[in-house]
Amino acid sequence: TGPLHANNIKRPCAIAVPLCRTPTMYPTLAPLLAALLTAVTSAKLEPLLPLSRTSPTTCTMGGQTPLNPALIGYNLEAFVTMMPNHPRDTAFQAVVDALRPGSLRYPGGTMSNVWDLKTGQYVPNTTSFGWKWNQASYSRFAPFSKYSREAPPGTFSASSFAGSVRGKVARIVYDLNVFTFNTTEACAQVAEIARVHAADGPDAPGVLLELGNELMDSGQGLPRFPNSTTYIDAMAPIVACARELLGAKAQVALVGALGAWSEGLGKSPLLSQFDAVTYHEYSPGVAEISKLSRSDQIIYIAGASRAILQSILSGSAQALGRRLPVWHTEFNYGILPGAKPGFLPDLEFGALHGIFHVGRILAAINSNGSVGSLQFQTLVHPLNYSSEPVAFHYEMPVTRLSALPDRPDLAIVAGTGQLVAHLSHLIDWDHTEVMPMTCSGGARGPTIMGETQPCVQAAAFKTGTRTTYALLNICNSTATVEVAVHGSATLDVTTYHAEDPGGWAPLPKNASDLPWSAPLKPDTAQSTIPGPTTVLALAPVSFSLQVLTLA
After folding, report:
1. Is 518 left (phi over 0), alpha (psi -120 to 50) or beta?
2. What pTM did the predictor assign?
3. 350: how many CB neighbours lie within 10 A of its CB?
4. Strand runs (DSSP E) across 449-509, as ranges?
5. Which helix (H) or strand (E) holds 281?
6. How many CB atoms neighbour CB 294 within 10 A?
7. Helices 158-165 and 90-99 sit at what angle, rounded to 10 degrees?
8. CA angle 350, 468, 51 (to 5 degrees)
């Protein structure tokens, strides 16, 4: 969430448009990409099949495991640190109820590095380690400190936030300030989190603790952390605090970045003390897809999430010298100066953007436990933007709120959020089990980042007598998948087409009445299935939720 997201983006991969992902986050990614990716001269995705062709696909179902709620989450970014709406505002509550995320990241983003979660305020102007508010990455947030300063003490605190979402979300990712706080101060923040969650029970795994935000970025990490060795050495006593104060309630992750930073972490004997490593990624950007036709751009975006996540997992393992679970606590499209993606503007708030999100969820489910957390950027922005566009990542939110207090009637949701919310409402965070699905055969999928992607990407969610098949078809041809049906059942199908422009609409009056009528306009169908098998049909470049309910 620092300046690398906009004006300082480095783009060393100018060739190989469809296969080279630009490191929109970290310049240190370039050497790794050079080793991982194969340069090509064609700017076409192949093969693209005619719409009339149907491709039978075989999907192998994995075993049932409890669903990790942290895989369907959002970063808060602009909310408590940059907006007047407090966590108990009824409009925010309505957004959480409507989108029904499994996890939220508080406070989220660059501002976490200068935030006091106990008071719910930014830290004073000057603290230890030579940091001052005029530091480039942080000075742009200073004007927003008035909201927390002028509110009653604790209004935006972790205690207030956790209380506002208790019973609504299953996990909270706390992005801890380890930048301006010394060890004693940071441990006091951990103690506050422990106090807030004291009633959760001794074994409730509700807390994910992230030690800082993008501290490898010189604009955010200096002068405190000149390198990863300094960083991990400073984190060791804070991890010890977390183990003592939170015990089994919490998992702890350190900041990672593909390349030299993580290589330094991998050399440290302290790495074994951490449960996970965090990565942020904002791609693809306009440079990757600008030479593609419109139809190929849509296919690329639909299939990019799986390719991006696989590259992060393999790159992390290579840099660290081991496989440590990844928390992907910020991700979205790459952005240009002015904070807009720069491609397919008519689909910015439509089904394709939601497909990009759900593709990352499906890829994480199919990663054999390699991904512990996903937070999409970002849950909520103001209705009226700041005069400084980078402050809010203008075009990235899934909902927007009025600055007027307690006005859920003015809250609006994008098609991006509608699609993923549909999946969330079909899940019971405590009782749903998930089954990964490995799909092959059928049409040959597009090559993205040097690897052929399967046309069909999928997972199944089982809750009681109901099985929900989440099926993403990234190819320009109809696909079919045969599944077993153990008895007579009803099949309810909702299909979101990638070219549905969506846009914005008020929050639905009853969010559990699925599918929502706006802003997206999905197709729906219902049939009775006698068993023992049925064939699920997938429209070209679409995401469908196909719900089998046994009679």
Report:
1. beta
2. 0.90
3. 25
4. 451-452, 456-463, 466-473, 478-484, 489-497, 504-506
5. strand 276-282
6. 13
7. 50
8. 50
Q: Which amino acid is at 502?
A: G
Tokens of 469: 């098949």
Q: Which amino acid is at 428?
A: D
The end-to-end CA distance of the chain, in Å, is 49
CB 357 within 8 A of CB 376: yes
Show pLDDT as tens, one digit a residue, over the chain (551 residues).
332 222 222 222 222 222 233 333 333 343 333 333 332 223 344 434 434 456 689 999 999 999 999 999 999 988 999 889 999 999 999 999 999 999 999 999 999 999 999 999 999 866 567 677 767 678 878 888 889 989 998 999 999 999 999 999 999 999 999 999 999 999 999 999 999 999 886 555 589 999 999 999 988 988 889 999 999 999 999 999 999 999 888 999 999 998 888 889 999 999 999 999 999 999 998 888 888 999 999 999 999 999 999 999 999 999 999 999 999 999 999 877 656 777 899 999 999 999 999 999 999 999 999 999 999 999 999 887 655 555 666 668 999 999 999 999 999 999 999 999 999 999 999 999 999 999 998 888 999 999 999 999 999 999 999 999 999 999 999 999 999 998 899 999 999 999 999 999 999 999 999 999 999 999 999 999 998 999 999 999 999 999 999 98
